[in-house]
Design goal:
Length: about 120
């Protein structure tokens, strides 16, 4: 199993960015996928999940209305569209497979918010 995130970089406050996570080594369509983030010196914060079975999505209150998770099963890819970014969003973003727990993680992609 491999998860590879991309799309991070520098973005201005209020700007937008789309992260991608390409999966391999398992049947992508059978699993929900999460996005999780971690700010420097802080713990992990769950951001969003796209459930494979129901097709439902859920978001942390801190990003609800600003972030959108989506997936393309044909490309084995999950996305995170981030709009209206705030300085509090300068973090490392990880994607993680949803099994009974988050059993596989990518190495992360860094998003820096700066004017």
């Amino acid at each position: 199993v491999q998860l590879v995130e991309s799309g991070g970089g520098l973005v201005q406050p209020g700007g937008s960015l789309r992260l991608s996570c390409v999966a391999s080594g398992f049947t992508f369509s059978n699993y929900g996928m999460n996005w999780v983030r971690q700010a420097p010196g802080k713990g992990l914060e769950w951001v969003s999940i796209y459930d494979s079975g129901s097709g439902s999505t859920r978001y942390a209150d801190s990003v609800k209305g600003r972030f959108t998770i989506s997936r393309d099963n044909a490309k084995s890819t999950v996305y995170l569209q981030m709009n209206s970014r705030t300085p509090e969003d300068t973090v490392v973003y990880y994607c993680a497979r949803a099994a009974a727990y988050m059993d596989y993680w990518g190495k992360g992609t860094v998003v820096t918010v700066s004017s």
